[in-house]
Amino acid sequence: METLIPTINRLQEVFLTLGAEIIQLPQIVVVGSQSSGKSSVLESLVGRDFLPRGSGIVTRRPLVLQLVNVPPLQERLKIENGVKAEEWGTFLHCKNQIFTDFQEIRQEIEAETERGSGDNKGISPEPIYLKIFSPKVLNLTLVDLPGITKVPVGDQPKDIEAQVQEMILSFISNPNCLILAVSPANSDLATSDALKLAREVDADGRRTLLVVSKLDLMDAGTDALEVLLGRVIPVRLGIIGVVNRSQHDINTQKSLEDSMKDEQAFLQRHYPSLVSRAGSRYLAKTLSRLLMHHIRDCLPDLKTRVTVLSAQYQARLNSYGQPVEDHSATLLQIVTKFASDYCNTIEGTARHIQTSELCGGARICYIFHETFGRTLQSIDPLAGLTDLDILTAIRNATGPRPALFVPEVSFELLVKRQIKRLEEPSLRCVELVHEELQRIIQQCSSFSTQELLRFPKLHDSIVEVVTGLLRKRLPITNEMVHHLVAIELAYINTKHPDFTDAAQVSASVNSQQAEALDGGKRWKNEKVTEEKAAAAGFGSPSKGQAINLLDTAVPVSRKLSSREQRDCEVIQRLIKSYFLIVRKSIQDSVPKTVMHFLVNYVKEHLQSELVGQLYKQPLLQELLIESQDTAQQRTEVAQMLEALKKANNIISEIRETHLW
After folding, report:
1. Does residue 148 contact residue 165 with C-beta atoms inside 8 Å?
2. SUPFAM superfamilies from the entry (predicted)?
3. Element (DSSP H or E) covering residue 131
4. Is the pLDDT of residue 432 over 90?
5. What's the farthest any 2 CA atoms get from each other in the chain?
6. 585, 657: one domain
7. What is the average pLDDT score of the chain?
8. Which of helix, strand or coil describes residue 645?
């Protein structure tokens, strides 16, 4: 069991060299109000004066204190040629420097505090790490924090209270730490700030030990027996009373050994029933025992955490890749992988398949059959064509002679106008597929391995080459789609097997009209209507008036005669029949055209295009320059992985027998 605390100290050193706090190690955090006697308690544990003292806030940075028990000097000299001092200290920020004078340790703490938090009374969360080796100490790891203060003094910031509380909570929130709450005996325990903060993070008290300091300063006639027995406020890990050195003792340089003797004598006189469970020596033994048991309980989770983190950091290091040695092979490998990922995304065989939205080939399929197909289906074959437009086209096609039959020219003229409307959605289909092919570039970049992120210039060049290839194919594909529509417009095939025969359409319309009207009455009404229309439109001018026929406006709308209605309906049926044939053809041929001229061409020529434009000797060095972030991250991850491996080895040294 005694080896557990040095083991945690070694783990702490391993991780502190990286300045990382990814592993929360077991330790004891000392919490108390300003001038509650925290520093005196720590010095009594060490048996030496080494902490800065004074009025106001003295501890302004966290002090991580590791106490290491070593054999006496005489025994050590027999075994090894180590430090020739009974007791000494070392700081993490002063590497390879040994302090044998504890006055120098105090001065170094003060100097380092001023370096980190300035010479004013402000605080800093950056810890100072001090390790003290002595045969008189027990193995312990403690953290001394700034005292809880209420009112800013001097040039302290106005939120000094909030800053101190935030710092304390950041340490004691760690579930692996024990909380040593220090509260003076001459103040009411119910108002203890230390206990209040401890309860916030440790409601059931499993991690809190209370130290009642300054037992000798209580009012005459009162004692702390009820408090020490836990009858006022119970604390699960116990309550230990101690007697601090007075300022007079410090000024007269009274030794800590004499102070401990006086403390024992005081406890014997005033608390004889508790003398074996109070005092600085009992506190040190209790803390060491509690810390060892706490480490034993935390060790399995700690080992699991180190193992999991090692695997995670190993995976991150692998993702960053190794430094480039063969530029040619690396470039070819990256380019080939990108081209393969791009084609696989289109084919739907990519390793990373999205579940949130359609992408790649699936989205192209959706564009062809849903977006483009529905758009074509929504186009009305007769949209934009009124009966008057059709009638005007018929008349224009017959010239000066009245037509006996519906002229074929008028049908071609009108049906071409309707077919032309299919061109815009076809070009929009090409544009949507082009946009999706652009999106695949970014998708492959994000899901690809870290190579492209390692080499930003290569990434930009690959994007530029692929974008250029797509841009080059876009006008070619658009032109082919133009040709598809132009082909349909070039020859109106009225002999198409699916096209409705004009004679049948005309006969069908005639039979429908015959059924709708009575025979003789129909012709009579038609004749009267035509005479009225002729009289209204082309009647004789009034006497004394001259009419210019060219100035007469063509009526915007009027009632059509039966024959005109018949002719219009015949043309409408023929246009609809032929338009549906062409729409079906365009709906089938445009996707094929886009696949052949754009998608398949890019798939087949992407790798050769990338290699042809990027695999050039002068460009290799420039393209494969790593980003500074990647190189730095690789170094940091490698260091962290090394630290985790060391930590794993240290933990593995602990056998199950050591835990009991």
Report:
1. yes
2. P-loop containing nucleoside triphosphate hydrolases
3. strand 128-134
4. yes
5. 149
6. no
7. 79
8. helix
Predicted confidence (pLDDT) per residue in 263-320, tens digit: 889 888 888 888 888 888 898 888 888 888 887 887 788 888 888 888 888 887 777 7
Q: How far apart are the first and last CA of the chain?
A: 6
Residue 416 forms part of a structural domain: yes
3-class DSSP state for residue 635?
A: helix
Residues 183 and 196 reside in one and the same domain: yes
Q: Which of 275, 291, 307 finishes a domain?
A: 291
Place of tokens 């930003």: 456
Specify the pairing of strand 177-184 against strand 27-32.
Answer: parallel
pLDDT of residue 533: 47
Where helices occur in 380-455 by DSSP H, the ranges are 387-398, 408-419, 423-447, 451-454
Q: How far is CA 597 from CA 69, 344, 347, in A?
A: 80, 19, 17
Structural tokens at position 473: 């194919």
| pLDDT > 90? residue 472 | yes
pTM of the model: 0.54
Q: Mind giving me the DSSP string for 539-580?
A: PPPPTT----GGGSPPPSS-PPPHHHHHHHHHHHHHHHHHHH
- Cα–Cα distance measured from residue 651 to residue 6, given in angstroms and rounded to the nearest whole number: 11
Pair of tokens at residue 87? 């007791």
Question: What is the spatial distance between Cα 31 and Cα 179, in angstroms, rounded to a whole number?
Answer: 7
Centroid of chain to Cα 237: 42
Which residue type does 604 have? E
CB of 116 closer than 8 Å to CB of 61:
yes
Cα-based angle 652, 659, 1 (whole degrees, multiple of 5): 105
Residue 525 placed within a domain: no
Kindly list the strands in the beta sheet with 63-69, ordered across the sheet, starting from the edge strand earlier in the chain.
Answer: 98-99, 88-91, 128-134, 63-69, 140-144, 27-32, 177-184, 208-213, 239-241
Burial of 481 by CB count in 10 Å (0-12 exposed, 13-18 middle, 19+ buried)? buried
Q: Let me know the angle formed at the C-alpha of 459 by 475 and 633, rounded to the nearest 5 degrees.
A: 160
Same domain, 46 and 152: yes
Q: Tell me the average pLDDT across 599-615.
A: 89
The verdict on 278 and 361 lying in the same domain is: no
Q: Are 632 and 14 in contact (CB under 8 A)?
A: no
- Provide the CA 323 distance to its chain's centre, in angstroms: 27
Residue 524 lies in a domain: no
Measure the CA–CA gap between 214 and 249, rounded to whole angstroms.
Answer: 13
Nearest to 415 by CA among 563, 577, 560: 577
In terms of pLDDT, which residue wins out, 362 or 353? 362
> Which range scores top for mean pLDDT: 137-151, 233-247, 415-429, 541-555?
415-429
User: Cα dihedral angle (363, 369, 370, 372), rounded to 10 degrees?
Assistant: 100
Give the structural domain span for 639.
627-660
Confidence of residue 459 (pLDDT cuts 50, 70, 90): confident
Identity of the residue numbered 435: E
- DSSP assignment letter at 92: S
Q: Which tokens belong to 185?
A: 């005996």
Specify whether 47 is located in the same domain as 178. yes
The set of residues, in sequence order, having a beta carbon less than 8 Å from that of 156 and lying 6+ positions away, is 57, 120, 121, 122
Long-range contacts of 456-460 (CB under 8 A, 24+ apart): 456/627, 457/622, 457/623, 457/625, 458/331, 458/334, 458/614, 458/623, 458/624
